[in-house]
Specification:
alpha+beta; 21% strand; globular; 4-stranded mixed β-sheet; single chain; 111 residues
Length: 111
């Protein structure tokens, strides 16, 4: 290999000192209202990252961050554990509201 050549690519990310305060406040508020919470972070392309929160009582909600790094920082600051994937136990804990069931019933699948 020639001197100075390197085939390893590194992704450069901007790491902030702290997560956006609005996202942290939203996560804390949700966790406090539902007896604690767990989070799953989903990458959603240019939009950033979606933080899906599942409360201890089965309620769920979400927040959006600029990227997955900011999402993890926000969860850490809010004191909410981040799950690495959608585990069966976490999905079984989720309880959709009656409003969500009604809205899903009105949707028509097109072929």
């Amino acid at each position: 290999m020639a001197e100075g050549s390197d085939t390893t690519l590194t992704a450069q990310q901007t790491v902030t000192d702290q997560a956006p305060s609005g996202v942290v406040a939203g996560i804390r508020s949700f966790a406090a209202a539902h007896g604690g919470a767990k989070a799953v972070i989903e990458y959603v392309g240019k939009r950033g990252a979606r933080i899906v929160l599942v409360g201890s009582d089965g309620a769920w909600g979400d927040q959006f961050a600029d990227d997955t790094v900011a999402a993890r920082e926000a969860c850490a600051e809010a004191g909410v554990a981040v799950e690495n994937a959608w585990e069966r136990e976490l999905m079984d804990q989720m309880r959709p509201s009656n409003d969500l069931w009604r809205s899903m019933a009105r949707r028509v699948m097109a072929r």
